[in-house]
Amino acid sequence: MNPVLPVEIQMGPDPAGAQARFGRFVEQGGAPPDTDAGRRLLAAILSSGTFLPELLLADVKGWPALLEDTWLERPKPAATIFAEVEMATRGAVDFADFKARLRLIRRREMLRLGVRELGWGTTEEVAGELSGFADACLEWSYRFCDRALRAEYGSPELDPGEPGEGENDSLAPSFVVMAMGKLGGQELNFSSDVDLIYFYATDFGHLVRTDASGARTAGPRSLHQYYRELSRRITEAIEDVTADGTIFRVDLRLRPEGRSGPLCNSLAATERYYETFGRTWERQALLRARPCAGDQALGVRILQMLDAFIYPRHMTPGMMDEIRSLRAQFRPKEDRSTDAFDVKLGGGGIRDVELVVQTLQLLHAGKHRDLRGRSTPRGLRRMEISGLLTDREARTLATAYRFWRQVEHRLQLQDGAQTQLIPADPDARALLSKRLGFLSLAAFDAQVAARRDEVKRIMDTFGDQEGDVPAKVSRLLSLSPDRVEIESLLVDLGFADIDSAADLIETVGSRLPPALVVEAAASPDPDRALATFRDLALRGSVGLVAWLREDQQLLRMLATLFGVSERLSRLLVTHFEMWEPLLDGLGEPHRSMHTLATSLEGRLKSTEAGAIPPGTDGNPEDLEESVGRALRRYSVEETLRIGLHDVAGNLSARDVTGQLTNLAEVCLRRGIAEIRDTIAARYGRPTTSFTVLGMGSLGAHEMRYGSDLDLVFLYAAEGQTSTGVGHQEFFSRLARRVINSFGAMLEEGRLYDIDTRLRPSGAQGLLVTSHAEFERYHEQEAAGWERVALLRARVVFTTAAASERTAFEQVLSRITYERVFDAEAFGRELRRVRQRVEAERGRVAPGSRHLRFDPGGIMDVEFLAAFGQLGQGASDRTLRTTETVDVLSRLVATGWPATLMSDYTFLRTLALRMRLLRDRPEDVIGPVDFGPLARSLEQEPARLRDELDAAMRRVRACFVERLP
After folding, report:
1. Burial zone of 205 (CB within 10 Å; 0-12 exposed, 13-18 middle, 19+ buried)
2. pTM for the structure as a whole
3. Rounded CA gap, 142 and 235, in Å?
């Protein structure tokens, strides 16, 4: 009886071809799957073309293993791929056996990765895994061939006492495979060549053979001959076509002197070549160079040696001309029809996008190291944050690049051929469009045409040093247009609030450099960007405006910032002194607590040396004020740095909140220490310790832009200071001084508002509490919600010795986790509080979403986490953490829904971005916010709204289930 043809095949993009392949699959012993998931998987393979079905039919017995492969729906780590290739080739008896084993695992990996490309993963993930597989094959080929050569030729050794010709020649013999091109950028495709260059350390050495008795004799060949043969064998291992196929074609044309050059080069020869003969296209090729096999340290040393060549700090006119000619060098020899389009080399295709990134790197990365990187998508993000591309340009290029790479992969999966050509034949093109999920050939052709035109519009004007100001902006800022024409031009340029923008142009247009308006129009929010540029032009000096006219990179960076973040824009326009340190810090997305504290201390040393007003004789209060001003300036600078990297996508939500928390904690510690010294100078030194608990978002490492500091002030024991002032009075004065000092609005702004309502008895209680009273209150009087607040309590400042601090933290843990926990009563209390909050604080206008207080909002997740912590924290100490993400991770591991973690991260990301966009204390997204919010996150507004609603429904469903 013939197996029934799965309906998934009949409904697929290629029913006839897939049916024939299904028949072969069954004839060769393949077992048709009996699950929906299995049928979808088989149908996808058989409908994709001939390449994947041939891999499947080559080993039908491997079909069940493919069905059960745990790496079908998630990226396989490079370390796992590396171990699997090692296991597959272990025990190879000779070179032929090694190559056969390598090709067998290649067949399995290509099939798995092909499936992931068909919808079980993303194109970017697949490209990374393909690159990881190529790296592993090269590394194990190097190891196998090197062992064999050592047995045949002898082992390379450095000549004793040989001075060589320079420092490079003192290196011990070693060898490295340098990945170039797409492999270097970890963006390999299914039919890619692997572009490689082979290097070795030195020619000053010899080969030594050791026989069974231990006797040593010199080998007959030089080190160059040894490494040339090693290079040849590695190449053969990878690209040789055997009965089992091949791994990848190897392209060595990027090596020094190309085809006519030696197969491998020593470090000294490499340095001489690039110093003497290196050309601009070789700089461009080396932008993506990456050591992928052999001696990684040697590879790093080579790249360091070539750094000045790859990234020149100063460009000559000749180099500029060569950079502009790069595009022409890679253009196809003849124009093709519109329908038959080469997605790699055609105008507006992959190469054009890559050249945008690489050209900007050649021009600017010599002075700005943060622009360096091998990945094209990440390079676009770097160019955006640095202002070299507008937000719109970067998004356009990134979208086109993702689309072209997916088309490229699907073209190659059809027949396994090395092609990037969309066919001219309508039937073939229609089949490709169906495999890509398009509903019609017309929709696919329209998408291709749109992406080509978008990239070409950017690329065709690319490379001009200045470029003419767009005609519409020139007309807008001229003296002749009337109000009607101004409004019409603003509409064409993409402005929304036409009345306000027209008023702005009429009043201050003569002071706006045309480039400012051009960049504002290209920003995520043109109206806000233009208004901020107006403020900048009005408040700034003539020198500042002149600087902006000349520095296009800075101008574009500011346009992106002004179009995304109201908070950061205001900070930058208000504090012109922050510009230089901000630009200096753009290359550091992450700064540790230690780095922050160290840089702050360096800043304060200069404050202490030169910022105290003359004639004060070092008065402690004057010093305290100077330090307070320095803390504010430092906080603004660091907040700007964090926010810019947040906007650029270089930081996750947890990275942002963690860095904002670290910044707050560093400022808090230093500020309290300074104020304590001021108070002690007047009231004497206390004889007990002072401790500050961070609560709320500070305690949870979840600070947002503009967050208050929730603090509880404690002292260890009753007593008196050295001048007889009671501890309660002394520490109360200290706490009030901290609150007033941090919250004072100075010229530099406010540092932090401090909220102390989480102290024992809330606003009615003492501002500062002893340890004993704190413990008594929480054991005998505290409400259930106050126990929830303790879950986020941690010491952020203390003068206690280590042993005393540990003892107090143990008490804190005990009163939080080890008291009796009545789950039912506690659940009722949480539901009561939640209902009250929804009624009193969660009211928003129709069409709006309150990310924190709406049903399914952040508060639901936090209450769920608290319920899980208190229910299980007594026995599971891994739950005794103040960080909600860590709590959720542990709860998910014990069986809670995994979506709770992803939905919480999503909600926090939106809340953070809204703080940047609107600078509102409430986490509310209004109907007018979805557009700018979605654009800043590179999403469609409708899709973002749908994803938000779905996430909040899931969270609320979990809340109702766990706390019925």
Report:
1. buried
2. 0.55
3. 10
